[in-house]
Structure formats: C-alpha cells, structure tokens
Amino acid sequence: MATPGGVDPTPSPPEDFPTWHDRGEAAVVPVVLPTGGDSDRSRSSLDGGSMSGSGSGLLSAMRRTTSGNTVPRRPSGLLRKSSSHIRLRTHPTIARSPTARLRHAVFRGNLPEDGSRLVLMNNVVGNRKGDYCSNELRTTKYTWLNLIPKALFEQFRRIANFYFLFVAIISYIPNVSPTNPAANVVPLLVVVGFGFARDVYEDLQRRRLDSRTNLARFVILKRTAAGTGAPFAAAASSNDVLSTGSSAAVAAAMDMDVSSGHSPALGGKPLSKDDAAALERGHLPPDAHASVASKKIAVGDVVWIQKGETFPADMVLLVSSAEGGVAFVSTANLDGESNLKRHVVAASASHLRGGEDLRHVAGGCHAQAPAAAFHSFRGSLAVGNGDPAPLDAANLLLRGSVLRNTDWIYGLVVYTGPESKIALNMRNPPSKMGPIEVKLNWIVGFLFVFLALVVIITAVVSGTLQGVKSDGQWYMGSKRLVSGVRTTFIGLGTFLVLFSTWIPISLFVTLEFVRVIQASFMQSDLLMTTRGHPIAAKATNLNEMLGNIEHVLSDKTGTLTENEMNYVACSAGNRIIDIRGEAAAMDNAVANGDEHARSLVVAMALCHAVVPEPVADEPPPTKDSSVSKRKMLSGFSKDVTSEGASSVSDVESPLSPAGPEPPSGADRVVEYQGQSPDEVALVTSARSFGVELLERSLDMLTVREFGTVKQYTMLGELEFDSDRKRMSMLLRDPEGNVKVICKGADTVMLPLLAPSTLPSDENHAALQEHIDVFAKEGLRTLVFAEKVLSPDEYEAWARQFAAARNSLEDRDSLVEAAAALVETNMTLIACTAVEDRLGTDVPETIAFLRAAGVRLWVLTGDKRETAENIGYSSNLLDTDMTVIHLKADSPEEIQNALQEAIQVYVKKGEGEEGSATPGGGMLQRARTRLRRGRGSKEVELGIIIDGATLGHALETHAELLMELSDACKTVICCRVTPLQKALVVRMVRELRKANTLAIGDGGNDVSMIQEAHVGVGIYGKEGSQAARASDYAISEFRHLQRLLTIHGRYSYVRTAGVIALSLYKNASFTLTQFLFQIWCFWSGTTFNDQWMVSTFNVLITAWTPLFFGTFERDLSEETLRNHPEVYLSYRKNRLFNFWTVAEYVLGYGLWHALCVYFGLYLSIGYLGAPYANGQGGGFYFIGLANTFTIILVTFAKMTLMSHIINWFVIFGLVFGISTFFWLMPLLTSPIVGEYPLEGLVLQLFSSSAYWLTAVVVIAACFLLDFSVLVIRQLVYPTLVSRLQQQEKREERKNGGTRLWPPCP
Questions:
Q1: Which is catalytic among the residues 301, 525, 555, 1114?
Q2: C-beta separation of 577 from 597 below 8 A
C-alpha cells in the first residue's frame, strides 16, 4: 500500500541483497540509518533504488537486522563507556518456518542468548511458559514480613543507636547498673521509635504512590487463551510454535504444560463510558476491548493508548492512527529530552489498521533479554503469514514515556514491571556526605574512645581502691566486695552506664529535624521561585555544605544563558543581514528577491529534526478515567540513571481525551518541538520570513514556501553527532530533483564547500570575518550548504550507504565514510547567527560569587571565541584580568605551556606584558592588563582551555593545571565532553580537597552534577534530567547566590551551633557525675537522679537546640548581601572542627561542671545546712540541686549564644525549665516509684542558701565565656564580629530593636 508520498511502505529489497530465506550467511535487510552512537533512533531504506525517510529519517518498511551493539544490564558507572561490538557467528540454515524466521531475524541463525523471549500476541496460555514478571512496580523498602527486622536493622546501623542499645543491655545485668534499666531503655525507645516511625511513614507514602500507579486503568484487546486470528502459515509444520491458533498446539510446540492451570481474568473489566466513546471516535470496536489495571497488564497483551497517556509497559508499536505508521512520543520523563521522538510500525505490521485487524490475525515477537539501555533494542515481529521484520529502538515504546501528536496507537507488551527499561535503570542517587557529617562521625568516634579510656581508668581505680580498702568495709555485710579484680570488671559495665550521657543520644534526631526545617525554608522562599518552580532540596544532609563552597563548576548553555535561542543575523552574499539593528532587514531581502536570503530561509525550514505540533493539540481534559489514570501514573517515582544516575519518574503529563478534531494541513496553527533549541529558533524564524513548516509525516515535509504549499519527500536524514558536527537532509523536491541540504559548525563545513563556492580568497576571508564577528558577540553560528545529486549518483550512494549500515564489521566507520560521500563539494548558502541571551542577573550573580571568594569554572561545548565573549559579558572575565589561553596538541606541549605560565604568573607574581611561549605560541596573552591601586599591584588571572588541550592536561599533567588554576579567579573550558566535565570536577575534588558545586541544566551535565560534592540542577529547556539527578534544583542561575550566601551560610551556622551546644550540655552534665566519683569511693553511684539523667537529653534540653538550629542568624540578610566577603568567614569549617569541639567540651563543659559541682559541694555539702532551722538536705537533695543548676547554666549558655530571641526560643526555654517541675509528680508516682524525690522540689526552692549559691555559681561559670568573648572582640576581632557591632550601632542609632523575621 502506498503512502501519501507515493512510496510503498513495504518494498522488496534490491536484487543484490540476500533475503530472509537465503541460506548460508545471515540474511540482512537493506537499511539506511543516520550516523552516530544513537543511530538506533533513526532509520532509512531503499525503494527500488530510491531512499525514503521515516520518523527519524527513514521508511518503516526496512529495518536493520538486530545485531551489533549490546549494552550492560545496568549502567556501568559515572565515567565508563557501556557499549561494545559483538560479532555473531552464523550458520547455514534450512528452509525456515515462520518461527525459525522469527528467531533468525533476531539472532541471525544463532541460538538465542539467555533471557530472550518469544511473545505471542494476545495469547495467554502461550505466554505462560515464559514465566514473565508482573507489571506491578514496587518502590517500597519494606514489606509486611520484613518490616520489623529490616526497620530495626536500619536503625541500629547507626553507631550511636547501637551504642545506646549496648548500654541498655548492660544495665540489665545484676549488680552492674547504677540506675534502673528502664531509665536507659526509655530514651533509646524514643530515639529509635522516632526513626522507625519516620521510615515507616515514608514507606507508606511510597506504597500509596505505588498503588496509584499500579491501579491506573488501561484499555487492552480482550484476551483469549489461544491467541487471536489465523495461524501464521497454514503450511507450517505442526510443531511450529506459530503455525496454529489452538492453545494445545501452541503449548505442544513450545513444550508447555497447559493442564496445570489457566490464566484468570481473560476479559478484564468493562470499559468506562469515556474510553468506549474515545474508541468509537477512532472507528474502533469497543466490544473487542476491556479495561485492566496497570499491574494486571501482562506480556503479550495488546494495549490501546490514546494521546496524552503514559505507556504502562515496554511495548512494540503495532498500529498507529497517524499516516505511515508513525507515532510521536515524549521521553522527557526518562531522559530529560524535551523533543518528540518518532517511532514507527514494523514492516510486518504495516498493513494493520486497528483493533478489528488485530482481532483476526496471529502474531508474535522475538525480543532480546531485558536490558537497561533506553536506546538499544533488538528483536523481530511476525504477523499473519508474512515474513518477520527486524525491530530496533524506533519500534519500542518505553514505559513512562507519553504519546503526543498521535491520536492513538496499539502496542504489544514485551517487558513488564521490573523488566521494563525504566525499572532496570532505577537506582538510588549517589550517597553524599557533607563535611560536617563526615567530621561529626570522626568526633563521635573520638568521644567513644575518650569515654572508653575514662571507663577503663575509673574501673581500674575503683578496683584498686577496693583491693586496698576492702578490710575496712565490714559494715557492707553480704554486699562487701573483697576482690579488686572483680570490682574492676563490674566497674567497666557500671561506669559505661553511668557515663552514657557523654554521647548525646538526641543529637542525631535533632539534626534530622533541623535539616528538614532548613530545607522547608528554602522551598518556601518566594525570592527563589520563578517559572513556577520553587527550589527543591533533595539532599538535606548537604544543607550546611552550601555555606562552604570553594569552587563552582557551571555549564554555560541553559545555565548562564537562557537557552532561548533567537535568530538575529546571517551572512548571505558576502554581507551581514542583522535584524537587531533593522527588524525588517531579512524580510526586505527576501521580498527584493535576494537569492542567498531566499535559499537560506528554505534551507532553515527543511534541514532539521523539528516536529510541528498543533497548538490546540491537547484541549483541557474532562473528568474521565484517563485523568485519574494520568494522576495515578504520576505517583510512581524512583531514581533512574542513564549514563550515570539520574532520578526518573512517571511524571504527571497532560492528558487529552479524544475530542474535536483540530484543524489539519495548511490551515492549522502549529508550534515546533525539537531537541535542539537552535533548530526550533531557525524553523520558527523561517516561518516569519515566508517559509512555514506545516506538517512532517513519515516520509514527507509539507511547507508553505512564499505562499505556495509544497511537499518534499524525505529520502534520508544524517543526524548530527559530536564527531560529525553537522547534519544533512536528503530530499526530493516537487520537481523531482534530489538535494542534499547540510548545516553544521564552520570548522567542519568550510572544508566541505566546493572551490567554486568561494572563488576568491577575499570572499573566503569575508565569510570567515563574518563568522568571527558573530562569535565575538557570543552568537552561535551554523553554516548552510547544499548539493544536487543526479539520479545515478543518488542510487549509487544509497546502495553503498545501505551496505555500510548492514555491515557486521566496523559498521560505524563505514557509515561515517559513506555519509561523507554526499557531504562534499557543496555550494554555500549562508551562515546563520543565533543568540542565546544571558539569564536574569547572571553578571551580578557571578560578580558577587567572585567577591565572595568562590572560584568559577565554566565547562561548555561552545567554541573558544563564543565562550570567551560570554565570559566577558557575564563578569566571569573582565578587562583588568590577565587571560591565559592554553592550546596544545600533545602532552609535552601542554606541559611546557603550564610550566611557563606558572613561572610567569604564579611564582613571579607578575607577568611581563607581551610574553609568549616559545615554539608555537601555545601560551597566548589575550588581554594583559594589571590592576594597580594604592601603591600595590594585584594580578587577577583567568584561563581559557579547549577540550583537546584539557584532555592532554587531565591525562598526564593535572597537578600542573591545578597549580595554575589555584592562582586564577576563573577557568573556562570550551569544547569539552560530558566525560571531561566530570573529570574536571574529580580533579578539583581529589587534588585540592576543596568543596565543589556543579550546576547545569541538561542531560550532559548529570555526570558532573553527581561527581561534585553538591549538585545543583536547573529546570531547563532541554528537560529536567539534570534537576532530577541533582541534590538541589533551582529555576535560574541567579538563585545560586541566595542559595549559597543566605540559606547555605545560615544552615552552616545553625548546624554547627546545634552540634556544639549538644556536645557541651552533655559534657557538663556528665562531668559532674565523674567528679562525684572522687567523693564516693569510685563506686559508680549516680549523683544525678537516674530519671533526670534519662530525660535531660530527650526532653528537658531537646527543644532549645532545635530552635537554635531553626532560627539562628548571626548576621542579617541585608548585611550578607552588602558584604559578599562574609561568605569566606567560616571557610574550612571554622565553626566546627576538633578545636571548637575541644573548646565546648573540655573548655566550657568542664569549667561549668567544676563550678557547679564544687560550688554546690562547698555551699551545701561542706559549709553547712541549706535551711535556717539547721535541717540538712541529704544526698538526693544535693543531687537534685546539681541537676537543676546544670539545667539553668545550659539554658543560659544557649541563650547567650543565640542572636535571635523570638517566641519559639522563649517557648523552648520555658518548656525545658517547666519540664523539671511537671516530671516530679510523675517520677514520685507508683508508676515510676522514685519516692526519695518526693517533696524535694519544694525544699530546694525554699532554700535561700541554694538560690544564693546558684547565682554565684552561674556567675562563676560564665566568667570563662565572657573572658573569651572579650578577647575575641577586642584583641582578635573577625569580620563577622565587626559587622555584628556595626549592626548593633545601627540599631541604637535607629532608636529601637530590630525585629528579626522568624526564618530567611
């Protein structure tokens, strides 16, 4: 059957090609495909000596035989390549039945590889033997069976929780624990219970989303036990698996046992009214269809999908409503690419037109084993009595992608559930730990070691004293311990339990709360919400690291620039036509008959991979089942990686039930969809200049060319890739001429032009000058050229190219060589210039970050000139900066260049103007201006290095490159690959141990984002793959300033303060227990009440550190914005390191413990009774006084550290102190039975001696604190302290107290 373009979709192969029935070497089908690593996405073929394009360039009739590249089942890592060539040995074959031909189509006569599958169309019994997995996807961590053991394992993996579990167990050993075991168990249950409840809650949320996904309903052809329609071939042998329609014959042929059971729910449930109406509008029989839940979809089902719906499984395309068997699919949910992909129906199914045909035909698909690679698939499809046709990635519809621009399709399910490609790509994002978290682990380990030493020392002292003094302990009776050794061993457990509060059990829970609250502040910050996207904080454990970034490594296109391309100028006919200066310049040139301008506009409208999509393509959805289906599918969320790890979900996509038909053809209004914003900009501009792209079908381009509608037959498409740096379209125009239209980078296009195109050196120089002018303005340039082929030339080339594509040996190089044959001796059309504007406030943001001491790296694929000019316009470079250009062709050259640059600019400090590198000028001075001021010279350096030179440097001289970059403010790497981006990040991380942040917006930035300490993704024009793979996602580059200098810095100050306060309060409390052992014969007696010890951490003092971590701000936002250098103040973790821990634990903690213990001992225990009537308080009285005094001192310390006193902080203080009072009735009740405490609170607070002592003790405690504060403020003032004093002076000057907002 002929297509509208007049091309038969199922032509016979040329005579000189072997057929499927040939014997001997593996048969091949003639195929023409675009070049490049992802060639599986596109196809081309011959039609009796002519080529026709499809989807990505070629007809659906011819498919390349499935062999060649294989991809590992799982991604192989960040910087590894995963594809390799496999040669298949072939065998002579006998005359093949349909099944044999089906297998041969996939494996070329070889035995099938492990895991391959033969899927029978709509045949339930026949597919049972495959034992395929369910389509249900589960992202939950727990099941009802493993919930308790696995959740507890997750909790006790944390060393702190395991430590407290160990202490709780020891406390149950008789005669060992000095406290009630319950006093140790309750805090552990609180902490572990919170973590357990959080994990279970999060898992229940995942389960709820899984249910929404798995219960979404889809329409399938009604299932039958024995398959549908006629046999494949009536003459096939009885043991042919596809030769009969009966379940018994199918089972026998496939060696199945069908007597053991049957598949339930063959027919599914009735259709909803909306689905039935949609089928009727598509002239499809509703009674032949049924509705099933997504999790019930099985391998072999034929699923009907309408426009806007998400595919529930991996399916082979069988039927499409679009002409030519093409379907347009959005894969943005999978790979982040926003362009529409074209998928095509296999040649063997091209005669099918809908559900009625599918009901009366048998078929099957032989598919490779499930594999993770999105763009790799091999298999073959046989329908009815026809020969099998090979399948590749263009025939496979992936789960999670969305049908677009196509009314409906039918697909044969081949992979379900965990075997679908999206599921095989699922993995958790790389685990990252911030520097505070890493250092905290070390510090906690150090505290464990310190505690162990203290426990051992006190146990040894206890045992030694017991051995010496045991004779005098006659009054102990049966409890007398005579053996010092036994006392030592018992003391190990006793003192471990007694000093267990040395490690704050509440710290880790408090940190989790604080980080979640900090993330909520970021996400609710309206100043960081644009384009409808608030910031997404997905790695809260890295919050504080945002305040200590030293290197920012950024992509350019879409990150620094808006990735909104606009055509602005061209070089046509040796003159520049610039529409920025004169808006109508191009229109006038076209109207005046300028042949160069008119040819350029036509080429812009024809040479591309852009798809026109009607503006009214998707009207507002109605309240039907498809809406709920979309919402349910949007619930499935899990991290996905492709070429690295990236987070992928079946994200909610707009749905459109079948409705009024939109205008078609030349009358409809369209918008253009394309992977490259450059192409979309050029096609859109061509429309404004008089040539409008109207439709793009399987093999036809329809354009309105200066008022006349014309159709161009697509004969082939040679896609762009990073090696070729160009793309070409082979078209047959309405007059029958075969044309090659090519566009690409000037570096590769100019050598391909015919000598007659540029008849003189002057013309060549003029063109090059125009290109240089565009590049200096930061514009992106493309050179267009064309060539007319004679019929003989075309047919000869087409046959050669088809042979190259079907070659089993060295296919890629043969294809590239064949493609280059038509891309020579071309005629120049023109050179276009496209502007990619800088993002909002990008120059100001970069200037601020530079002033904040952050070193900036830009890693881009653009040309050196473009990257340099963007650097100047964005404040990455300035005219006072010395810019060093590095360019080398070998490792030796780059070594010499780096060594000379280091000698000139780093070691000498100042470079001599005009210096150059001997032997070829590898080191060039683009601008040499030294900034002078106030009698001193300061040289600011920048580096620009290209990808080839960078490759040599990374390979052998990375240390030299880092030594030079250490002296630079900015480094720009141009013409780099995604792999090089990740390697640069790794170089900075490993060689300088510096905190790095990588930011980008495209899929090519994922490896860089995941390699950095902190990865920031931007919701970009190219999709959201980078945002999904990142730790934080923002909508514009300018938000990075606020993210780092406001939220990041506050998070660091708060987190460091929470840790310091938590360690301090536990140290001061525990050290009083230690000091008491000196006066109790090192017996392990608890000084503080055992229940007060338990509640001190998890209840009494828990709220104040939490509110400190929530609201603390050492400086106002205004000050931070006006003084970017403040960001440097806490570099290298100055607020949290071993010295600060020693200051708070062994400084303030020990001093406060000494003051409290000896102050109370001297006043109450030694000098006299606490009451005027001479009555003494006793042991429990002084212990309670010690506990309450420590609580007062701790709260006073926290209050003095806080720069923010709001109602939340006041509530934490009041709650903590009041807890001391309302706990007493509970502790003295029969429930707890702590009767010695009964009445002590009243006695304590009625003692004037205690209150006098408490005032003196608290004053003595803070003598050290105020002394340190005075020394730091007056003797060693810091920038932060000076700015704090400045803020206070401004407050006094303004005559009031500044009202601090509750959060940033």
A1: 555
A2: yes
